[in-house]
Amino acid sequence: MIKTAEVFILLILLTMLGCGSTTIATEADQIEDTEDINPYSDPSVYTGDPFTDFPGVIGVSIPEETYNEQEFEILTGTHFTVQIGAATSQETAERLAESISADITLPVFIDHIGGYWKVRIGAFPAREDAVDYSYVLVDLGFTDAWVTTREP
Q1: How many angstroms separate the Cα of 86 from the Cα of each of 12, 36, 123?
Q2: What value does the mean pLDDT take over residues 38-43?
Q3: What domains are defined for the chain?
Q4: What pLDDT, on a 0 to 100 scale, did the predictor assign at position 128?
């Protein structure tokens, strides 16, 4: 039978030997606790240039921003339009379209997209033309008018 004193001595010996545990030092352990750590910079213990094996940059190419929508035929391809509202019912959208038709000469479209009936005015080949016409609609009281694209 093992005595309590023998168990106590055995525990002390195992503790002194480390019980087989291993401690691994990391870079973070080498940084002093009083130092502020910047997560966007190299640790203070880092030495050397990380880009020494990379070739230098000789040029950068940025693609030009072009808009080819002006080349599309208005009735057969994508074109710009001004949306003045979206309704959850077809009847509400038709009433809105009817009320605006009396004040303008451009065509009024009602598109059913994603559960909404969207009331849109005009078919413009260029975005700038649609933006210019949106100011006319804002003056008529449609302050939320915005330019979008439409595919017939």
Answers
A1: 79, 53, 18
A2: 68
A3: 74-150 (3.30.70.1070)
A4: 92
Q: How far is CA 22 from CA 12, 13, 18, 32, in A?
A: 18, 17, 8, 22
Residue owning tokens 């693609």: 63
Predicted confidence (pLDDT) at residue 48 exceeds the cutoff of 60: yes
φ and ψ at residue 142, rounded to 5 degrees: -95, 75
The predicted model scores a pTM of 0.50
pLDDT of residue 37: 67
pLDDT in tens, 55-94: 877 787 777 765 444 433 445 567 899 999 999 999 999 9
Token digits for 55?
């070739």
Q: What is the DSSP string of 65-122?
A: ----GGGS-TTTS-EEEEEEEEESSHHHHHHHHHHHHTT--S-EEEEEETTEEEEEEE
How far apart, in whole angstroms, are the C-alpha atoms of residue 80 and residue 34?
Answer: 60
Residue 49 one-letter amino acid: D
Q: Between these two residues, 147 and 19, which has the higher pLDDT value? A: 147
What CA–CA distance (Å, rounded) separates 149 from 79?
Answer: 6
Instruction: Name the helix (H) or strand (E) containing 150.
Output: strand 146-150
